[in-house]
């Protein structure tokens, strides 16, 4: 692969200063290209814990992902290129709300999607991601001998788990959603399917039920990537029902295949707040505390428990 001048500069700064760069699939492609690891939320959390053996980690993803890496690596400095890169879904659920739900439903375990604040995680029994939510809920129900759990903040992911397991969850709250995935409607999907009748539709579980029900495959970003790589139905075209960054990665890695974004508005502007220029700046100014991810110690000590339990159960 040939790198641009700024990418070359970042790669040499990274080696010289001994820094690991982690990037989510929704990052701009020029950022994905210079990362040590690319992945979904679960993969990046695991990599942050098990494979990042440098004193600094630069995390190109939204705040909850960088916070999770920091909570799992409290002795390291985790840096986020643009501290304003946040996931709006997390705002649907506060720690105060979780405490109220727990009071109202005593004894019912709390499973929170990692797309949540560290304070919400601190109130939880176990975390989950889009790739392991069904398995985690199933295991937690067995462990606590219960037929339901408190689940938040994504009501679409909760609905997906309900459909997979044939159970009913208590959603915290009823209407939590991702503003990027929920724009995709059944009508959009029908339209794009009619334009590309031979394409497989792959979607993220944050999509609404009507969309998931007509999908050929539902999974996390890494699971979608793995599905395209495996290509069990031997197809040449895919309609991608998630953020555009994954499509760009797929197009780069599988040039012989065709990819269509299910809806042109599926862009997460928060993920795109990181730029290659900002990354270079942060690597040049490692002592600038403005880029350091700071989770209060008291919260981190509690939030590490449900995150570690998720890693154990996945
Ligand atoms: P993944 O864990 O599937 O990468 O999803 C993260 C996310 O924010 C989806 O919108
Ligand atoms: Fe959050 Fe949605 Fe962006 Fe994922 S795509 S980071 S859930 S806003």
Structural write-up:
The protein has 314 residues and is an alpha/beta fold. It has 3 domains: 5-86 and 271-294, Rossmann fold, CATH 3.40.50.10800; 90-177, Rossmann fold; 181-261, 3-Layer(aba) Sandwich (Rossmann fold). It is built from 14 helices and 12 strands. The longest helix is centred in the C-terminal third of the chain and has 17 residues, at 297-313. The protein is globular and about 55 Å long. The mean pLDDT is 97. The chain binds 1,3-dihydroxyacetonephosphate (13P) and iron/sulfur cluster. The site of 1,3-dihydroxyacetonephosphate has 11 residues, from loops.
What key attributes describe this structure?
about 325 residues, alpha/beta, Rossmann fold, 3 domains, four-stranded parallel sheet, binds 1,3-dihydroxyacetonephosphate, binds iron/sulfur cluster
Summarize the structure.
The chain has 314 residues and is an alpha/beta fold.
- What is the third-level CATH name, the topology of the largest domain? Rossmann fold
For the termini, the CA-CA separation is: 34 Å
For CATH, the homologous superfamily of the largest domain is named as NadA-like
Query: What's the architecture of the largest domain in CATH terms?
Result: 3-Layer(aba) Sandwich
Structural class call reads alpha/beta
Q: Over all CA atoms, what is the radius of gyration?
A: 19 Å
Strand content: 5-15%
Widest sheet: strand ordering? 2-1-3-4
